[in-house]
Amino acid sequence: MASPRRSLTGWGLTNPTVADVFEVPNHEVRDALKGVTPRGALVRGLGRSYGDAAQNAGGVVLRLLGAAHQAVLDPVRGTVTVPAGVSIDDLLRVIVPRGFFVPVSPGTRFVTIGGAIASDIHGKNHHGEGSFGNHVHSLTMLLADGSQVVVGPHQEPQLFWATVGGMGLTGVILDATVQLLPIETSLMSVDTMRMPDLDSLLSAMEEGDDDYRYSVAWIDPQATGRSLGRSVLGRGDHASLEQLEPNDAIEPLSYNARQRVTMPPLVPPMGFINHATVAAFNEMWYRKAPRRREGELQSIAAFFHPLDMVGRWNRIYGRRGMLQYQIVVPFGAEKTMRTVIERFSASGAASFLAVLKRFGPASLAPLSFPTPGWTLTLDVPAGTAGLGELLHSLDCLVLDAGGRHYFAKDAATTPEAVRRGYPRLAEWQAVRSRVDPHGMWQSDLARRLHLLDPPEDMA
Amino acid sequence: MKNALGESQNIVLLGGNSDIGVAIVRAAITPFTCQVVLACRDLERGERVASALRTDRLVVAVVAFDGARTDGHVEFVEGLAEEYGNLDLVVVAYGQLGDAERTRTDVDAAVELAQVNFTGTVGVLVAVGNQLVSQGGGSLVVLSSVAGERVRDANPVYGATKAGVDGFCQGYGDWLAPRGVHLLIVRPGFVHSAMTTGMKAAPFATTPEKVAEVTVKALRSGRRIVWAPPILRVVFSILRHLPGPVWRRLPLG
């Protein structure tokens, strides 16, 4: 048998570490965990978290096998019970033609259901409908002691909410029952507005977001001065049958998301991604957007998952990889957010489109990322000169403003930042040490951010 | 652990009093670093170095370590991992220049220098390597020297030990790489430091800080060999091929 040792990274392609990787069906997970060393075990989904969340250096990493045809749809209640290893991509192919959509869709459909829960992912509808965990009825979990339990908001709620956003560190999610959203068509009705600067964007979102189920803004991170924060605001909802052209209405629920091209594994020549090329791209993106357009029909893939059209797009940043910096700051800290954008554009970092989104109320999960406020996301090449200092200074600003980092994106911050950003960490640690007293579940992220240290004094 | 920028949380320096070693550690410390362990024989001097590095956010510990005592290496490295957790960056910088005159003529002195510089270093590298492999990743920096590139009559035992360590590291580093461990060989030229005080500087002499700068850069970029200053790579690719009579007459300090 080939050695199971494999080098793993996150989607950012930074900081590889080596682990024993096994692909197992749900019923073999327990056997696969026999003989785990003190470096512990972790389940990895499709490796779309950017940093080290799905790595476990020197330990065991499990990839759960599961197929979408095993999903059980209850069309009356509008729920689906699905193995945790199934991707949203595969699930959509099953549920969209039957008139349902996932309750929360991230910017890529290549994430697993287990990963969606472990990171408590959010999407363009967070301002109204919250994060993924809010729509989960129950989970079947395998715990460190080998027992299997069913948890939900009304059944072992503490363990349930510790698992939602718990980054895989409370146990193995085997399957989940999730509330779906009924849809009439597979198209989206989208309103697009071009915003000249940050202030106009923020006020447009404050005033108008609540009229839409989905809303997100793409910011040009290279724009400076009076154009700082110029952006394209896209908002919409699932199109109803009446909104369709007669031709589309013949098969209103047809769904066929495809990848057009895949980035080759070759490293792009040095300097291919630099400030000039990226600035040109962002300029073009901004210019090609209409000043204002209403009721445009778009496919689900075009609206939710535009980057998925290019497979392995993360390779564009070359061998050194990239970081995705995502933070949230509370309402009222708009100035901090402006400073973050300013510092990024002044640093000369070649950052593709940045994304800005207004979050609604937080969930009950102690480690869930979204809290009411503004969330900003920027890509940046890991090789950018002076990036360490830049990120550290931004971290301080964000934390001082009462903000925090997103575990599924973070790849560079410190244990201290987590303690400041996540005041309920000790509460989560207490639940975790109850279900995993010997530290079976571990990850590089947990080691880097000291998540598994004994619960700190609550005093 | 390390972060996506290649910064290390836990740094260990074997040879806690080495000027170059300390300079490398200093350059590798970032706001992300939590802990530094200085391992050395002279704890008093180590403590002086430690207090200069310490801040309210950085823990600096000093532990006893004798590079020549290979029988204690395994226990020592396991103890480090037990006490300090993941070893993210281990800098192996101990070594002696030796008394060139004595080591050329005195058997015991020659063997002792070889024991510290070569045998001890190989032993500790294997012990550290095992630990890094079992933790699934980490970086190792080993101080070689241009003196090992073409060994001179000026200090043959020292040069040979460096040649031996360098050779071992080339092969061992290639073995470690697919196991997630990055071994970086640093080949400095003449470095103005405590070790060389009173000696006549050779051409392209450099400082510990300069060596540290190129080392940290190479750590981030993933190179396996780095010369300090980098021009020495070119210089030695010529020197290595000079005919013996010419080589022996070069005024190399």
Task: Give a brief outline of the structure.
The complex is a heterodimer of chains A (459) and B (253). With 459 residues, chain A is α+β, with helices and mostly antiparallel strands.
Major sheet attributes of chain B: 7 strands, parallel
Helix content range of the residues of chain A, please?
10-25%
Give a count of the beta strands of chain A, DSSP E runs of length 2 or more.
Answer: 21
The CATH topology of chain B is Rossmann fold
Low-pLDDT regions of chain A: none
Question: What shape does the CA trace of chain B take?
Answer: globular
Separation of the first and last Cα atoms of chain B = 42 Å
Widest β-sheet, arrangement of strands of chain B: 3-2-1-4-5-6-7
Percent of residues in β-strands of chain B: 15-25%
How does CATH name the architecture of chain B?
3-Layer(aba) Sandwich
Description:
The complex is a heterodimer of chains A (about 450) and B (about 250). Chain A is an alpha+beta fold. Chain A folds into two domains: about 70-185, Uridine Diphospho-n-acetylenolpyruvylglucosamine Reductase, domain 3 (2-Layer Sandwich), CATH 3.30.465; about 185-410, 3-Layer(aba) Sandwich (Vanillyl-alcohol Oxidase, Chain A, domain 3). Helix content of chain A is about 25%, strand content about 25%. In chain A, the strands form five sheets. Chain A has an eight-stranded antiparallel beta sheet with strand order 16-12-14-13-19-20-18-21. A five-stranded antiparallel beta sheet of chain A has the order 5-6-10-8-9. Chain A has a four-stranded mixed beta sheet with strand order 1-2-4-3, with no helix packed on it. In chain A, helix 9 runs antiparallel to helix 10 (about 385-400). Chain B is of the alpha/beta class and about 250 residues long. Chain B has one domain: Rossmann fold. Chain B is built from nine helices and seven strands. Chain B has helices spanning about 20-30, 45-55, 75-85, 100-105, 105-135, 155-175, 210-220, 230-240, 245-250; strands spanning about 10-15, 35-40, 60-65, 90, 140-145, 180-190, 225-230. A seven-stranded parallel beta sheet of chain B has the order 3-2-1-4-5-6-7, sandwiched between helices. In chain B, helix 1 (about 20-30) links the parallel strand 1 (about 10-15) and strand 2. In chain B, helix 1 (about 20-30) crosses helix 7 (about 210-220) and helix 3 (about 75-85) runs parallel beside helix 5. Chain B is globular. The N and C termini of chain B lie far apart (about 40 Å). The interface of A and B includes residues 52 and 321 of A.
